[in-house]
Structure formats: C-alpha cells, structure tokens
C-alpha cells in the first residue's frame, strides 16, 4: 500500500516492485527504487532517494536530500538483549549519504530512545551505527567502521576503514580515528587516534566456563598454553584464545581537518602547545589537573579551553592518550 504524502504537491516515484506500507509519510520528490521496503512508521522528507533493496523500518526519519544505496537497513531493532519491542526511533539528518550495506539501529527505551545522525554525514559501505548513538554534522565513516551503543561523536569526525569504537565512548569534534584503530577511551576534540596490531592477551575463560568445560581442564589448558608460547609465537589465534588489539593512542592533532574548517594558523599553534601541556607528565599531576590549569590560564584560546572542558565534563571517563615518552601514558587519569 502507498503511504501518505507530506505535501500536496507530491512528485514521488515508487517503483512497482517496492513496498511502502500504509502510514509511511513521503515528501515531495521522494524516490523509492526497486524492491525497497518502507515501513508504516517511516518518514521520508523531500527528495530522499532509496536506490534499490533498501529497508527503512520502525519509527525512522530520513532528512531531506538523503541518498541511500542498495542493501542498507535503517531503523532496525537495537541489538541489545534487553530490547522487548518498545517504540523507539532513528533520526537521520539532511543530505546524508548512506552507502551499500550500512546498518543503523533505533534507540533503547531506557536510554536516549532515539539514535540520532546529523546533517551532511557520509557512511561508506557496511558501516554500523548502534543504538542510542548521537552523531554530529559532517561525520564521515569509511568502510566497515563500527561503533557500539551510546557513543557520542562530534561534528566533522572522520573514522578510517575498519575502525571500532567501544560503547559509551565520546569522540570530540574534528577528531580523526585511524583505520583499524580499536578505541575504548574518549578521544579529545581535534585528536588523532591510532591503533596497533592484535596480540594474544590470554584465554577466553568466560567462554570456556559457559561451554561447560571442567575447572581442571581450564587449569590444564592455562599451563599448556604458557608452555606453548614460551618461545614466542604470533599471528594465528588458538582455540579458546582471547585476542586483544593494541589500544588506540593519541597520535597528534587532526591538523588537516582544522585547516579545512578554516581555523586560523595562530589558533592551531596555540592548540598544539595547549595539548602538549595537557598531556605533560610530572609532579604527580593527572590529566584532569592539567585540564583545570589550562582553563584557569588567561591566555588559553577558545579551542584549548574547548578541549580542556571536554575532559572535565565527565569525571568518570577515560581518555585516549599519547604513547610518547614524557606524557601521561595511561588511558585513565585519576580514577584508577
């Protein structure tokens, strides 16, 4: 059945093989291509284009001018064991490009309720936006980027191919996450976060227990693996292995992004000095001590204050930090 029009002058084009359920709201100039499925709770604003084999389900809103490529699934149920079919939503902004196979889930009823994506974003093939995430404007996800639930991503953040973001993480505006980086702590605004090769961090004890393996067998396996790797072996992951990636570290500032945004050269230099001071170690100072000192500095620029405020805004968060000598080397500050 055909959904309702958002405007009287509704020049929509719906392919004969597409399904648009009764109750869906379609704006002027909307195109629904072959074999697409638009659910009854969906709203497609003016000039939205669904190319082919696109699924828009649940209470999902797509902003004007958004283009969705084949096999994307937007507004699917949150991938959370606590979800029981509640009415939650996905809101996507204007002029967003969503490439092949991208998935975006709705929110959870006991969290943000809606997953929100800002305007002018771009998601390359097979990227994933989990439930309750909040994304700013001009965000770019390269292929296979995946972010866990409840993440907050600022304006103009770029995430390189295959990068992963742990649930509840915050990424400050204008930050850049390198390809294949595994990010488990917050990234400051303008930060450049880089990751490393996976290593064998131990045995998947929880998985073995859940599979019913005897305690004696687990202990024997522990001793056997210690002997097995006594000389040092890398690459393949053994059965029952727990493979961990090197934590992403802060590799610097996203200078290119700052230049593209029109930031003055003097502001960029000031921010460089401010970030060096922020992560400087010594005298028992913590990251938050340094951030507080920067806020009290009368000569600190707006961008420097912005970064310091980001760190001080939540006392329980951990942060992605530089890996160089002479800086605070842990992902945490004063709460460990």
What distinguishing features does this structure have?
6 helices; 336 residues; eleven-stranded mixed beta sheet; nine-stranded parallel beta sheet; alpha/beta; single chain
Summarize the entry for a quick read.
The protein is an alpha/beta fold and 336 residues long.
What does this protein structure show overall?
18% of the residues lie in helices and 24% in strands. By secondary structure, the protein is α/β, with parallel strands linked by helices. The strands form 5 sheets. The chain has an 11-stranded mixed beta sheet, with no helix packed on it. The radius of gyration is 23 Å and the shape is globular.
Helical segment tally? 6
Question: Beta-strand level of the residues, as a percent range?
Answer: 15-25%
Record field, number of beta strands: 31
- Structural class of the secondary structure composition? alpha/beta
User: Measured on Cα atoms, how large is the radius of gyration?
Assistant: 23 Å
Biggest β-sheet strands, sense, barrel: 11 strands, mixed
- Overall, the morphology is globular
Low-confidence blocks of residues:
327-336
First-last Cα distance = 57 Å
How much helical structure, as a percent, in the residues?
10-25%
What is the averaged pLDDT score?
86
Strands in their spatial order, largest beta sheet:
2-5-8-11-14-17-20-23-26-28-31
How would you summarize the topology of this molecule?
Layout: E1 4-5, E2 13-14, E3 19-20, E4 25-26, E5 31-32, E6 37-38, E7 43-44, E8 49-50, E9 55-56, E10 59-62, E11 67-68, E12 73-76, E13 89-92, E14 97-98, E15 103-105, E16 114-117, E17 122-123, E18 128-129, E19 134-135, E20 140-141, E21 146-147, E22 152-153, E23 158-159, E24 164-165, E25 170-171, E26 176-177, E27 182-183, E28 191-194, E29 199-203, H1 205-210, H2 215-228, E30 241-244, E31 249-253, H3 255-260, H4 265-278, H5 287-296, H6 302-312
Parallel strand pairs: 1-4, 2-5, 3-6, 4-7, 5-8, 6-9, 7-10, 8-11, 9-12, 10-13, 11-14, 12-15, 13-16, 14-17, 15-18, 17-20, 18-21, 19-22, 20-23, 21-24, 22-25, 23-26, 24-27, 26-28
Antiparallel strand pairs: 28-31, 29-30
Helix pairs in contact: 4-6, 5-6
């Amino acid at each position: 059945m055909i959904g309702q029009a958002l405007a009287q002058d509704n020049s929509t084009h719906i392919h004969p093989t597409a399904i648009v359920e009764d109750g869906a709201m379609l704006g002027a100039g909307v195109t629904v291509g072959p074999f697409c499925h638009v659910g009854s709770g969906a709203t497609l604003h003016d000039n939205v284009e669904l190319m082919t084999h696109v699924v828009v389900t649940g209470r999902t809103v797509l902003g004007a001018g958004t283009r969705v490529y084949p096999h994307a699934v937007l507004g699917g149920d949150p991938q959370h064991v606590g979800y029981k079919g509640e009415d939650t939503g996905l809101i996507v902004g204007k002029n967003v490009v969503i490439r092949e196979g991208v998935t975006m889930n709705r929110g959870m009823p006991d969290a943000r309720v809606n997953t929100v994506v800002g305007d002018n974003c771009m998601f390359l093939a097979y990227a994933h936006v989990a439930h309750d995430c909040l994304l700013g404007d001009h965000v770019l996800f390269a292929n296979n980027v995946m972010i866990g639930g409840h993440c907050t991503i600022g304006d103009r953040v770029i995430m390189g191919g295959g990068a992963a973001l742990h649930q509840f993480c915050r990424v400050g505006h204008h930050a850049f996450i390198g390809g294949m980086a595994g990010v488990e702590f917050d990234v400051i605004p303008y930060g450049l976060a880089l990751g490393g090769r996976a290593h064998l961090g131990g045995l998947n004890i929880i998985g073995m227990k859940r599979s019913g393996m005897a305690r004696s067998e687990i202990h024997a396996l522990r001793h056997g693996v210690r002997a097995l790797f006594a000389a040092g072996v890398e690459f393949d992951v053994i059965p029952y292995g727990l493979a961990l990636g090197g934590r992403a570290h802060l590799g610097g500032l996203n200078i290119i992004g700052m230049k593209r945004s029109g930031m003055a050269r003097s502001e960029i230099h000031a921010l460089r000095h401010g970030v060096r001071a922020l992560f400087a170690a010594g005298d028992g100072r913590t990251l938050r001590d340094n951030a507080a000192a920067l806020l009290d500095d009368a000569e600190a620029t707006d961008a420097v204050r912005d970064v310091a405020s980001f760190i001080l805004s939540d006392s329980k968060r951990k942060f992605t930090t530089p890996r160089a000598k002479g800086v605070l080397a842990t992902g945490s500050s004063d709460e460990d």
